[in-house]
Design a protein that fits this description.
This is Plastocyanin-like domain-containing protein. GO terms for molecular function: copper ion binding; oxidoreductase activity. 0% of the residues lie in helices and 40% in strands. The chain has a 3-stranded antiparallel sheet, with no helix packed on it. It has a two-stranded antiparallel sheet with strand order 1-4. The radius of gyration is 13 Å and the shape is globular.
């Protein structure tokens, strides 16, 4: 099979740095998960490891022409 099982899947956004405001395992819950976002001092990255069977919430300014 072509299944690659691991802990994280790297995601990179070319031309931007972004803030990782949240991550979780399982399905994203739009009612509960945003309440846990770190909007005060989130880490600034250009690559993030998205948890296997999970999600990552990113915040960035889309101003790169």
């Amino acid at each position: 099979t072509n299944l690659i099982l691991g802990d994280y899947h790297p995601v990179h956004l070319h031309g931007y740095h972004f803030y990782v405001v949240g991550q979780g395992h399982g399905n994203f819950d739009p009612e509960k998960d945003p309440l846990k976002y770190n909007l005060v001092d989130p880490p600034e990255e250009n690559t993030v490891g998205v948890p296997f069977s999970g999600w990552s919430a990113l915040r960035f300014r889309a101003d790169n022409p």
